Amino acid sequence: MQIEATNIAEQKSINGADFPLVLSAAPGSECTQSNFLAWINENQREIRDLMVKHGAILFRGFPVDGAEAFEAVLDAAEFVNMPYVGGAAPREQVTKGRILTANESPPDQPIPFHHEMAQVPNPPAYVFFYCDIAPATGGETAIVHSHRVYERFVAANPEFAAKIEALGVKYIRVMPEQDDATSPIGRSWRSTFLTDERAGAEEKMRSLGTKWRWQDDGTLYTETAVVPAIRTEPRSGMKTFFNSVVAAYTGWTDSRNDPKKAVVCGDDSPVDGEAVIQTGAAMAEECVAFRWQEGDVLLVDNSLVMHSRRPYEGPRRILASIATG
Ligand SMILES: [Fe+2]
Q1: DSSP state at residue 302
Q2: Mean pLDDT for each consecutive 10-residue tract of the chain (325 residues)?
Q3: Other residues' Cβ atoms within 10 Å of the Cβ of residue 291
Q4: CA 35 to centroid of ligand 1, rounded, Å
Q5: Homologous superfamily in CATH for domain 146-283
Q6: Rounded to an integer, what distance in angstroms lies between the CA atom of residue 131 and that of residue 65?
Q7: What is the whole-number distance in angstroms between the Cα of residue 182 and the centre of ligand 1?
Q8: Backbone angles phi, psi at 106, to 5 degrees
Q9: Residues 6+ apart with CB under 8 A from 305
Q10: Selecting from 2.40.10.120, 3.60.130.10, 3.30.230.10, 3.30.70.330, what CATH number does the domain 3-145+289-323 have?
């Protein structure tokens, strides 16, 4: 089958390339599920190269009908599944394999821009989304190129940028004992670490370099290892704003957590709140928020691109998956 680059109204040009790259079947091309899966399988190397060049690829108009079909696309590309351990969001497993629901936090609250699991030492290389039920209003999974964010951050805040590039950052989060669906960071320690035993959670935290404290009310205070705030993406050589600083500082709020304390510099000094908020505003200016269409598959290079979720009303079902390579 023939697949070609096409355009959508919301697209931008980043570093001279379409962002995101949008691929659709060429007119007259026989677009069956098996043809599409065969194309994905044959072009798996090129797909990865295109993700470096463009940061993200949107496959639109292909016969991808439901969670199993989405999973078949990821399998055809031979993406290496990564279990979702250490992330903050409430989710549900959808297929036995690799598909989960996207963050199910309350629809009226935005989820700020982030690299998936930027707070752990080895975040996924890729994050994938699929639109099963398109929301009637809002609910876009907006994306922003992290190199562009880095450029804006450094230009506006050269001193603070140099500081966190040198020192890295740490994230502080109090996890509930049971999943709390009312919070965007409501994942319990049980589902964060995929265990019901405190000892099992402790073993995972030790391996992640996380410090912890069990609290009297059953919640778990966690402080991550120092992780980089700025990274250089090795294939492109681009520096990226690879962190959860804005997300944590502006969004990690619930009955257990104060967002102003959710992120600190690597030396425990506070972050520059004004610079953080300004960088969040730059992300909003630089992002692409396209309307979901059912069957859309979005492949995001998690090293280069951040994603977010806008508030929405009515039913919406976006599925997600992550991969190490
Ligand atoms: Fe995410």
Answers
A1: T
A2: 95 94 94 96 98 98 97 98 77 89 84 86 93 96 97 97 97 95 88 94 95 97 95 95 92 92 97 97 97 98 96 95 96
A3: 15
A4: 30
A5: Clavaminate synthase-like (3.60.130.10)
A6: 9
A7: 17
A8: -50, 135
A9: 55, 56, 115, 143, 144, 145, 146
A10: 3.60.130.10
- The token pair at 240 is 């990226």
Dihedrals φ, ψ of 276, to 5°?
-65, -45
**Residue 111: per-residue pLDDT:** 86
CA angle 111, 11, 59 (to 5 degrees): 80
pLDDT of residue 87: 67
Model confidence, pTM = 0.89
118 C-alpha to ligand 1 centroid (Å): 10
List the chain domain ranges: 3-145+289-323, 146-283
- Dist. CA 298 → ligand 1 center (Å): 13
Task: Enumerate the β-bridge partners of residue 190.
Answer: none
Q: What DSSP element (H or E) covers 214?
A: strand 211-214
CB count within 10 Å of CB 155 equals: 10
Tell me how far the alpha carbon of residue 126 lies from the centroid of ligand 1, in angstroms.
11
- Using the mean position of ligand 1's atoms as its centre, give its distance from the Cα of residue 127 in Å: 8
Q: How far is the CA of 202 from the centre of ligand 1 (A)?
A: 24
